Amino acid sequence: MSWKKFLTSPVFFKHLALALLITLAFVFGVMKFLSVATNHGEEIPVPNLAKMSVEKAEERLDDIGLEFHLLDTVDYNPAFPPYSVVEQDPLAGVTVKDGRKVYVKINSGGYAKVTMPDLVQKTYRQALSTLRALGVQEGDVKYVEYMAKDVVLEVKQGGKKIKAGDRILKNSKIDFVLGDGKTGFNDEELDSVNTHEILVPTEEDLNNAE
Predict the structure, then answer these.
(1) Position 8 in a domain
(2) Considering its fold, how many domains does the chain have in total?
(3) Measured between alpha carbons, how far apart are the two ends of the chain, in Å?
(4) Which one of 68, 110, 161, 200 is at 20 to 30 Å from 103 when CA atoms are compared?
(5) Beta 113-115 vs 95-97: how paired, if at all?
């Protein structure tokens, strides 16, 4: 049989149709395999990792095909356990593809320490502004006799005097000893000064003095 007759024969078309079916079946199988292998079209909701330990969060993500990635440690937040997840990206509930990285930030193990600045002879307002910028809280205030009002004379913590350069924990409370604005005279001396009669010499007194 010549090639021309073969190419126009029913047998050729039968073989051609069979080859096309096999090719289509192979392509479909490959596409199906890739779809399953890559979870094509499947989206996974990101779980809420807040307050989980690093180990538990990593295990939770691994179980559902997501990747844990630690970004940083943030300042201590007492609302979260030490070394637990504080922030995550993507947020909980967002749907992502399989294998997506979830970036997290974890809580510190405790409050950091800051260096105490020199607050003596500063005004109370200046001292508060400085401490708040450092993350330190205001404690009790005590006034003592001093000529300048609201001037810091001492800074204490737990009854112990603190000096510039000492290290204290963030969020701790600092007590102040401030001046009350009085000169230091006692009440009797102040009354004497206030009631003392000032004598103005007369012209006759001045003439007699001459």
Answers:
(1) no
(2) 2
(3) 164
(4) 110
(5) unpaired
Gap between the Cα atoms of 137 and 130, Å rounded: 10
Q: Return the pLDDT at 185.
A: 52
Q: Could you list the mean pLDDT of each consecutive 10-residue stretch along the chain, which spans 210 residues?
A: 63 74 80 61 88 96 95 93 96 93 95 94 95 93 94 94 94 94 60 46 52
| Residue 191, phi-psi category: left (phi > 0), alpha (psi -120 to 50), beta (remainder) | alpha
Residues 59, 84 share a domain: yes
| Residue-range definition of the domain harbouring residue 103 | 43-107
CATH number at residue 53: 3.30.10.20
Instruction: Please list the alpha-helical segments (H only) found in the chain.
Output: 3-7, 10-37, 54-63, 124-134, 187-195, 203-209
Structure tokens at 203: 């012209």
Within a domain: residue 179? yes
- The answer to whether position 158 is within a domain reads yes
Residue 128 pLDDT: 95
- Cα–Cα dist 161/156, whole Å: 4
